[in-house]
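Minutes, project check-in
Item: structure for the 1018-residue chain
Input as provided by the requester:
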Amino acid sequence: MLGASGPVESLQEALAEADRIGYPVFIKASAGGGGRGLRKVETREEATLVYDSAKREAAAAFGDDTLFVEQAVVRPRHVEVQILADGIGNVVHLYERDCSVQRRHQKVVEIAPAPGLPRELVERLCSDAVNFAREVDYKAAGTVEFLVWTDPEQRAPAHVAGYGYSFIEMNPRIQVEHTVTEEVTGIDLVLSQLRIAGGETLADLGIAQEGISVQRSAIQCRLTTEDPADEFRPATGTIVVYRSPGGPGVRLDGATYAGADVTPFYDSLLVKLTASGADFTSAARRARRALSEFQVRGVATNISFLRALLSDPDFLAGDLTTAFLDEHPELMSASPGSTIGAASGLLLRLSEVTVNRPHGDSRTTQRDPATLLPREAIAAAPPARTAKQVLDADGPEALAAWLRALDHVAVTDTTLRDAHQSLLATRVRTRDLVAGAEAQARLLPGLFSLECWGGATFDAALRFLGDDPWERLEQLRAAAPDVMTQMLIRGRNALGYAPYPEDVVTAFVGEARLAGMDVFRVFDALNSVEKTRPVIDAVRANAGYAEGAICYTGDVLDPAETTYTLDYYLRIAEQYVDAGAHGLAIKDMAGLLRPPAATALVQALRSRFDVPVRLHTHDTAGGQLATYLAAIDAGVDGVDCASAPMASGGSQPSLGALLAAMAHADRDPSAGGGLDLADAATLEPYWTAVRDLYAPFEAGQRSPATSVYRHEVPGGQLSNLRAQADALGVGDRFSEVLEAYHDANLLLGRPVKVTPSSKVVGDLAVWMVAAGVSRADLLDEPARHDLPASVIAFLQGQLGVPEGGFLEPFTSAVLAGKPPLAEPAFNAIDRADLAHPMTRRAALTRLMLPAEAAAFETSRRTYGDVSLLPTHAYLYGLQHGRTEVIDIAAGQQMFVDLDAIGDLDETGRRSVHLRANGQPVVLRVIDERAPKSANVRPKAEAGNPGHLGASVPGVISVLVKPGDQLQAGDKVAIIEAMKMESAVTASTAGTVESVHVADKSQVEPGDLVVTMTPAPPA
């Protein structure tokens, strides 16, 4: 026997016995079984940690908390011998079973005979088992259990044929695994036990040792309602489908059925499958076949895990120990998707959406808009030469000259970027954009360019969609090879919200050009041309077309306008031309440029500069087609439009409307060919269906809004601002947010508003509404409020200084005591990654948008490439009776059906029962809509300097701990929501008493974050 103690009465006694026996040891329940009350420990420290929990578990399981300590053996096999004994001293054995494959010390499969053991060893074990039963005068069926391990040095208490072995215990009963012994010996153990209990002898039963032999091999698999991928957590619910296998050599012991309820109060064993064959290999093959025929739906099961186990080469080789599953963790992680590979993450994503319905129910019956695209149609009259051909053949300078010489106005289509940013919060996925791009390029080859990339699309693709924006660009380039691609780039900010070192910007431009970008429309939020020079230089160095964008605000014809005047815009244009821009663009983000002002501005630019001038506007107020017509009449070279279903309401004017308005007129856009009104109309059903599909992300503007002339929110910000307001709980007060935007604009010095400056104004506006703070409050006591981090950085000059300067004394009061801005710092690893072609894209993404890049990486690790999912299923989940087809790879598809959604369990999860290519799959996902337990946090007391509370809702990062010394203005926490950060700061010096929220938890306005003891007055 192994070294062991008697019953131990205390932790100290258990530690003393463990020291005597020698680690590792088991702390075991004396009345135990099934692994309950059993803990393996390697050190005194581990023993101290687990002793109480083992004692509690033993008491709960057996009504007896007595424990003892026993020597633990590393990687043993668990072998047991079945015996039968009658009442007159006769004992026989029915040979051995191997029960080594276990989870949490509970058996998973049982095999008879034990594969790979020397028969000399087996005979010794059987002999010892019989002798033990005789010694204790045992009667009836029972099992004598042993540990067996390789022991070449013969150090075990008993050994034979290179193996050591030790007695564990005797189970004086029929065990679960008795079926394998019955199958290999042909003896009915249950009936034999009953007859012995009735007084019959082994002779009466016709059983004698010399007549017992092992005739074949058998494997018993315990099918349980457990999820091996979730640490074998038991599942509960109703079995909605139950079909079992059959055939020769297949035995089932169970009593389940469709409609049965699986409760949490009993063992998770559902049915025992015992498969037998001529040898171990054939028994395993038959067991795998039987497992594949099982259909159990409604609760999670371990069927896929068992199939993977019985296919494992080590298992089939008989290399079995009690550590088998610990040494083969992939068997657990593979379940329930062991045969669907990388697609298991996609099924998890579908299951989560199906349970939680984050976007509600679909409001369209058109599941796949691509079916509405004209697959074979081509342009009625293609152009003689496209802008793309000019750029590729002759270079950007030639393209600029070609554009200036056109006798018709050039058109850029913004549907793939600014249109869906303005209307649908930039949520349209790559797969739907690529499908539209292919059709647009084929039917409208006369387009100057397709605007398809920019900071917002990069951000949303990473943060919300799980799309790789670099892959998006490459796919768009491939879909539209003969039309130029175009992007918007924020000067030295590139795609981010703060300036980056020039080498980062230069590397980004080079990589974007390599990935297929042609036209770079570069701007600075505050019209600082100096900050765009690195981009212009890099674009020129990479033979791209650099267009300097003059960001427009105000009204150049307003006599009261003293800041954003015609002279101001001409000065910016001159700086762009001097910087080497190939062309100019008027970037009217909020749709403030009115027709007479457009005439004046375009004529002034045309008279001063001989570079192409293009115009971009947003039709928020509904009158911007007139602005385009005025600008075209004044000589503008190009305008931006969107497909009609994705136009206006904050987006660009309609392409179809422009083509109709200009038909047969001077400078008709269709005059150059490849830009026909009928072809444009052919694409509109597709974009209508796309917009319907993405309806949950609508900006909410259902009609023209002339209020834009007051609040001046850029069209591209409207939908994202609404999403931000929703996230902060003030979406139902959006009119107040727009009014606050007007006030925030004035507080921040009336800057030109375009990302990222518009984001700063929006952050402040949403914060004001959420925190209940007015413009008057901020002007009265600027230092009293914890403003969003982006606002602080803006007032510190992170983006520059507005043309009219900052508002004083407001700005100085806000910044009093604030630390200076830190320059972005990149480590050696970042630099090395930036220099290497294989790591450059990931490094650029990480450097410019670190939080968004992290979100994308998390999504890829968790779900895989979700861009493969059909959009309807991606947004709205699975539906009963509807098969979703997922194109996993070229020539490889997965067909997914929803069978059932289980009941809510005690952990707040539901089981989702799917079929993937016919294979049942069960996934457990959190139901975000389930009732949450009450968790009422204390609120900060108004006016109490020792109470520091949350000003807005969001996820909080705690920066302090009890005992920390604080100075007035020190940050104690940061609250983040929808890319906006707000600090919680100390209003006075003092000491932290306690922290009332957990790090990374959700907080609501007014929640008490920290209590502190204010320092006494000096």
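Outcome recorded: The chain has 36 helices and 40 strands.
No further action items on this chain.
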